[in-house]
Write a structure and sequence with these properties.
It contains five helices and eleven strands. It has 199 residues and is of the alpha+beta class.
Length: 199
């Protein structure tokens, strides 16, 4: 679960999971630090505490990635640092996840914003969590958009579903081909480069 936090560099927010990866606690500043443009009751402290972490991760590959990171610090207690991206439509947000075991058996997962860079061609991405990978049209904001891209949950790069070469590119290189103002519908996964960081 990545915190959708405000644009202040070095801001760090945390949540704690128990041995079953149930979210047991969040930072006192959690609700205050959420981005008001995208905040929802589901993302509030009351909406996540007591729920399985997996409820907030949108695909099986990303769930496996996050669970593997958490399990690695349980098996051999250490602090793990994992870079990732959590972009907005117009800003690349370079972040890091810090995973730390605690004495009571819980795991603290912190998210820290490191730096920001503008996206040259802003674009919004949407997903339909109830739809499997397909070419069927999905209605979003009164528009019709086909699922044509896989987006990496870790680095935010994209791959065209029809690209058998498995090449992943920054969003900037795709947006010039999209209609202005129409959100791009994607499914999420983890690219091979990010999966290799687990080894």
């Amino acid at each position: 679960m990545t915190a959708n936090i405000t644009k202040h560099a070095n801001l760090q927010l945390s949540y704690w999971v128990d041995s079953d990866n149930i979210i047991r606690k969040v930072d006192d500043r959690w609700d205050q630090a959420m981005n008001s443009d995208s905040w929802s009751e589901r993302a509030s402290a009351n909406g996540i505490v007591g729920k399985p972490l997996s409820d907030f991760i949108c695909d099986d590959v990303t769930r496996m990635y996050v669970v593997t990171m958490i399990e690695s610090v349980r098996v051999i207690p250490h602090t793990s640092f994992r870079p990732y991206r959590c972009d907005t439509p117009d800003t690349k947000r370079f972040m890091q996840m810090i995973i730390t075991p605690e004495d009571n058996g819980w795991i603290r997962v912190s998210h820290e914003l490191l730096r920001l860079e503008p996206i040259t061609e802003p674009v919004a991405f949407v997903t339909n969590m109830n739809r499997s990978r397909s070419e069927h049209p999905v209605s979003t904001r009164n528009t019709i958009s086909k699922i044509r891209y896989v987006r990496c949950s870790i680095c935010n790069r994209l791959r065209n579903i029809g690209d058998h070469a498995n090449e992943w590119h920054e969003a900037d290189s795709f947006t010039k081909h999209e209609s202005a103002g129409i959100p791009v519908t994607v499914i999420y996964g983890v690219c091979p480069d990010c999966l290799n960081t687990l080894k």
